[in-house]
Write a structure and sequence with these properties.
Layout (H helix, E strand, L loop, with lengths): L1 H17 L4 H18 L13 H30 L8 E6 L5 H13 L3 E7 L2 E6 L7 H20 L1
Antiparallel strand pairs: 1-3, 2-3
Helix pairs in contact: 1-2, 3-5, 4-5
Length: 161
């Protein structure tokens, strides 16, 4: 079952990347999905049932909208800091407490934080993320954890856990 789920996901990803339904593209995509599935099935999710729950796809769409909005806001914030004559930055590494259980969900959160301008995930240690932040706005861990990961974490939990 895991093999089939991974094959279908990678084949659909191939079709999205190439955006072509020509016979040659379909054969190449099937071959790439087959090789990928053969090599990486053992690393795929244990509970494939999660992929057939439609509510998770709804929350994924909501998450993509929230993530896009947060990226746009962060881009403007970083641009302001770079273009400002005084360059108002206050960089630092903060420790963010995680409420996510699965490694995949934690990785998705870490990648989401890294893809947002002004932050980069440095390390994951146990239940904590270490994030380099361009402007540390608070010294209170609860406040900056909510500012950095709060909006992403609740949706990632609904999608992947």
């Amino acid at each position: 079952m895991r093999f089939l789920a991974l094959f279908i996901l990678t084949f659909l990803f191939w079709l999205l990347l190439t955006f072509s339904l020509s016979p040659a593209n379909l054969v190449a995509g099937a071959a790439a999905a087959l090789v990928t599935s053969l090599l990486f099935t053992k690393y795929f999710f244990v509970k494939v049932v999660k992929f057939i729950q439609p509510l998770r796809y709804f929350w994924l769409l909501v998450y993509l909208v929230i993530f896009t909005w947060e990226c746009i806001k962060a881009n403007f914030d970083v641009a302001y800091r770079v273009l400002h004559p005084a360059m108002p930055i206050k960089p630092g590494i903060v420790k963010v407490k995680l409420g996510l259980k699965s490694d995949f969900a934690r990785t998705m959160l870490a990648n989401s934080i890294t893809m947002t301008p002004g932050t980069i995930t440095v390390d994951i240690v146990g239940d904590e993320l270490f994030v380099h932040w361009i402007y540390v706005k608070s010294e209170d861990p609860a406040v900056y954890s909510e500012m950095i990961a709060g909006r992403f974490e609740k949706y990632i939990k609904k999608i992947f856990e």
